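Troubleshooting: if your tokenizer reports a length mismatch, compare your output against this known-good record of 140 residues.
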Amino acid sequence: MTNFKIMCTVILTTNLFGCGNGEFKSSEDETGLVDEVFVFVEAVNIYGVTVELDANMSVDYYTIVGFPGISGPEILTKTILPIGETFRVLGIQECVNCFPFSPVKRALIEVISNENYSGETVVIDFDRFDMRHNDFFKTQ
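Known-good structure output:
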């Protein structure tokens, strides 16, 4: 019974702390998504996220999420990207220090139809969207 309690504690702890701001590195494109252009067929939320929760908080990266969205102290901005916006997949990233139950892969993208995000880091987590089959975007 003791092993069961230890295992439950480990699972609960990893789920509570998660990896929201883990360290990501470039990964091989096993998906064939790099350089593909997509168009949003549904509006989506784009959130400005900070990695450091301190007095000088600034947006470190943007993440795209479907409705209803996400919340938390690390979320600094929220905007809606309307239907018709386009993006290109620049690369695939993998988390190197995430817990097993957290997002481990994401697409690094460029929002090509909206200059507000030019030069910004924008990502789509694979655990939130199946890049090939979803209701929010399709290949152009």
